[in-house]
Design a protein that fits this description.
The chain is an alpha/beta fold and 267 residues long. It is built from eleven helices and six strands. Strands 1-3-2-4-6-5 form a six-stranded mixed sheet, with helices on both faces. α2 runs parallel beside α7 and α7 packs across α8. The longest helix has 18 residues. The model has no long low-confidence stretch (mean pLDDT 88).
């Protein structure tokens, strides 16, 4: 078939339009819903300027800053120049969770000028109620032990008096043992307490007093052996609460009391 000329092709199109064929189609149908629509420049997202800040706009809150509770305790303890100031600093210290479960802070008992300072572990239920360390059955036993070598927490003269405190000033829940974190956090306070009281001799009663001030545990091995803590002699001894559970060790506790008495005579 000869190729149609321009005028012939145009005449055939006109004839088809007159017959009603006014739309061009393909041999196969086209699914127009499946066609991928390409975005046009008009449909592209338009960058909008950030809205101007208003006087009511609030800046985002900064992330929380981690607090070194031990360093906070060290600074607070160093700033205390006497025992009342130290007690106030401890009562104001907000970073120890024990204060939320204890009734009150247990600071000390006895005569601050005493030659002997006893450091226990932590307050128990009776101490938490009374606000004093070593009360109840364990405290009564301690008083009898001290009286046997001529010492008393109620004595007014330094030669026969004792001063008593604990590693932790707040009672742990259910009288559980202190944790290493609690000992480290509150350590600056007990060290400052010792500096301000300035005793001649320290008595470390129980494992946790030895751990906190000597870095050692094992009271059955340490008891009775003299050491040096903060430039002064210190003797580890059984805690009275332990002796109530293990009365057969009272003989060894008596040996330690006699060693303490002899050391006082030489100083």
């Amino acid at each position: 078939m000869d190729e149609l000329g321009y005028h012939d092709a145009l005449a055939m199109l006109d004839w088809q339009i007159e017959l009603g064929a006014d739309e061009a189609i393909l041999d196969a149908p086209v699914d127009r819903f499946a066609l991928e629509v390409q975005p046009t420049p008009a449909s592209a997202p338009v960058a909008r300027p950030a809205p101007a800040s208003t006087p009511d706009a609030r800046p985002a809150a900064p992330p929380p800053v981690a607090v070194d509770a031990t360093e906070v305790a060290r600074v607070a303890a160093a700033a205390a120049h006497d025992l009342p100031a130290l007690r106030a600093a401890m009562e104001a210290f907000p970073h120890c969770p024990l204060r939320e479960t204890a009734r009150q802070l247990v600071f000390a008992d006895g005569t601050p000028a005493a030659r002997v300072m006893i450091v226990g572990e932590a307050p128990g239920r009776d101490e938490d109620i009374a606000g004093k360390p070593f009360v109840g059955r364990a405290g009564q036993l301690l008083d009898r032990m001290l009286a046997a070598i001529g010492l008393s927490r109620g004595a007014e003269d330094a030669a026969h008096a004792v001063y008593i405190t604990n590693m932790l000033p707040w009672r742990p829940p259910q009288n559980r043992d202190p944790t290493p974190e609690e000992l480290a956090m509150l350590g600056p306070f007990i060290r400052r307490h010792i500096e301000l009281a300035d005793p001649d001799i320290l008595v470390l009663m129980g494992n946790w007093a030895c751990q906190g001030l000597m870095g050692k545990r094992g009271i059955t091995r340490l008891r009775g052996g003299w050491a040096e803590v903060m430039d002064r002699p210190a003797i580890p001894m059984f805690h009275p609460a332990y002796l109530l559970r293990k009365p057969h060790d009272k003989a060894r506790a008596w040996e330690d009391l006699l060693s303490l008495q002899a050391r006082l005579r030489t100083l």
